[in-house]
Design brief:
It contains nine helices and ten strands. It is of the alpha+beta class.
């Protein structure tokens, strides 16, 4: 027995939204019964019961069929531009007004009179929460009717005005007989809502701009970033012995290795710590900290230098042929130089000049120009 009960609970928990295993599915009649009862308790402070309900479809031209006389017509407006109408008889209007003005619903029948704007405002305050709960309860159905998001608007004068405000399309019509204060008053209420809803141009434009609005809202928020120079892991015993003035060595910390971290502690970007005027600042480095210039040793420099070819031997040719030349392709003959004595330059006989070294006289920078020795005559060539 316990196993079957537990299985039933698990089946209800695992069932899709709106599908309640073992219980009756939500219907418009059940949703309206709960919605009217809740609105009666919260707004009127009295019991409101649903005795009968009939559901059907209609077009605006059929609105005059079965209307009470007199009747209150309330325009129902949806957020997407859809329109409907609520129609209440004089007994419903009278019961709502009595409950909100004198705090009780009288047993006597309400007066048959034309409704006023005050009547429309009081009845609207009762129908607004009922319509909201009615739409919310039906959203869990397998194929919910489009009745959510409606609120009461202005009062309409007559059935002709209703035909003008409703779209020329099929509408759902819910005819209800309800009682107040356990039967003190009984009246009729109708809800006429569109069977299909299409978004208005304003609603479509709002949906198109939703992404931009969301992006603007998200980008306009503030995000806290923390600049972390270094992180230490210390034993708890050492932390408890901290005193004012103690020095903590920051091993591995560098001014050019600061991490900017987000709210969850993830590193977003690297930065360099510095100063901007009187305050501390960080300079963002998109590519990370700049790499240090490599220090090359003397041996590395020698090995990296290009090899210098050795001297050429003109008598034997090239030892190594540069740029892909084969040895022997450039053979240079030895250069023969004639002896200097055999060269006849056509100069006169020097007259037995000895090759003794010349002795220069001492320089005298104070002598007059007339005392300087005469310059030798220029050599005349034949």
């Amino acid at each position: 027995m316990a196993d079957s009960a537990a299985m039933s609970v698990l089946q209800r928990m695992a069932a899709p939204k709106g599908v309640v295993t073992g219980l009756s599915e939500m219907t418009p009649a059940r949703a309206l019964r709960h919605a009217l009862a809740r609105a009666g308790d919260e707004v009127l402070g009295t019991a409101v019961g649903l005795r009968e309900m009939a559901e059907g479809t209609m077009v605006p031209d059929d609105i005059a069929e079965g209307l009470p006389e007199p009747a209150l017509f309330l325009l129902l407006e949806g957020a997407d531009g859809a329109r409907g109408v609520a129609i209440a008889c004089a007994q419903v209007v009278g019961a709502v007004i009595e409950a909100q003005t004198i705090g009780q619903v009288l047993q006597t029948a309400a007066a048959e009179r034309c409704p006023t704007r005050t009547d429309a405002a009081l009845v609207g305050s009762f129908l607004d929460p009922a319509l909201g709960l009615f739409g919310a309860l039906l959203t869990g159905c397998a194929a919910p009717p489009p009745v959510d998001g409606f609120t009461c608007g202005a009062a309409l004068t007559d059935a002709r005005a209703v035909q003008m405000v409703l779209a020329d399309a099929a509408h759902l019509r819910f005819r209800m007989e309800i009682d107040f204060a356990l039967g003190a008053k009984t009246g009729k209420l109708q809800l006429v809502l569109p069977a299909e809803r299409t978004a208005s141009p304003a609603a479509r434009k709002s949906a198109e701009n939703w992404q931009g609005t969301l992006e603007k809202a998200v980008l306009g928020t503030s995000a806290r970033l923390e600049a972390v120079l270094c992180r230490l892991r210390l034993p708890l015993a050492e932390i408890t012995r901290f005193q004012v003035g103690d020095t903590l060595p920051l091993d591995g910390a560098g001014l050019d290795d600061v991490s900017l971290e987000g709210p969850v502690g993830a590193t977003l970007i690297k930065a360099r710590l510095g100063r901007s005027g009187p305050v501390r600042a960080v300079r963002l480095m998109l590519g990370g900290p700049p790499p240090a210039a490599p220090v090359m040793q003397q041996g590395a420099i020698a090995s990296a230098a290009a090899p210098v070819p050795g001297p050429m031997d003109l008598e034997s040719g090239l030892d190594a042929a540069p740029m892909g030349l084969e040895p022997g392709m450039l053979d240079v003959a030895p250069l023969e130089v004639a002896p200097l004595a055999a060269m006849d330059l056509g100069l006169p006989d020097p007259g037995g000049l000895s090759p003794a070294p010349l002795e220069a006289a001492p320089l005298d920078f104070d002598a007059a120009a007339s005392e300087l020795p005469a310059m030798p005559a220029p050599l005349e060539l034949p």
